[in-house]
Write a structure and sequence with these properties.
There is one protein chain. The chain is globular and about 55 Å long. The chain is α/β, with parallel strands linked by helices and 180 residues long. The protein is built from 8 helices and 7 strands. Helix content is 45%, strand content 16%. The N and C termini lie far apart (53 Å).
């Protein structure tokens, strides 16, 4: 297919597609997810396709696809816009850094399921309906199943789009400039 990511099921378009496209993904977390899925066959049973970016690992089995190369912007954007939700698999050392994949996903109204690192905790507290923390492989997979669109999620996406808009950024920047 166009992503050079071969799926094993020709019904791929009927699956819920989840993505983790950050090049900061932690391969240790990824390996735990692969292990959990191999033991429980979770993705196939629930008709979910999971596509994850790794720095080293290549894997394609039971609706679980791992690739280790950069995608062209058009393919990256298409994966985000056609996904069900986004996983963040950042190491704890990620701490105060911000995830571009997180912001891209939120702007595209995609729910975030993240491991526990500082920035994810902040977003989870501020936007509890669209940003969830998962501490184990099982929690990642069960949280994927637990989401369904509702009014609270839609309202949080509206707030996020307003708070991170160009106009809001400009106002905040002017406040900083004028304060100095």
């Amino acid at each position: 297919n166009k992503f050079n990511l071969k799926t094993q099921n020709k019904e791929s378009s009927h699956k819920k597609r989840c993505i983790a496209l950050s090049n900061s993904n932690d391969d240790k977390i990824l390996l735990k997810l692969i292990d959990y899925n191999e033991r429980n066959n979770f993705l196939l049973k629930n008709n979910i396709e999971l596509i994850i970016r790794s720095n080293e690992i290549i894997y394609n089995k039971n609706n679980f696809i791992v690739y280790n190369h950069n995608l062209p912007d058009s393919e990256y954007n298409e994966l985000i816009s056609n996904s069900y939700l986004t996983l963040l698999l950042h190491p704890k050392t990620f701490k105060y850094r911000f995830s571009g994949v997180m912001l891209d996903s939120l702007f595209n109204k995609k729910v975030i399921v993240s491991n526990d690192f500082h920035m994810a905790r902040i977003f989870s507290k501020k936007y509890p309906n669209v940003c969830k923390i998962a501490k184990t492989s099982e929690e990642f997979f069960t949280t994927i199943l637990s989401f369904s669109n509702n009014d609270a999620i839609e309202e949080e996406f509206k707030v996020i789009n307003k708070e991170f808009s160009y106009n809001q950024f400009k106002k905040n920047l002017l406040k900083i400039i004028n304060a100095s």
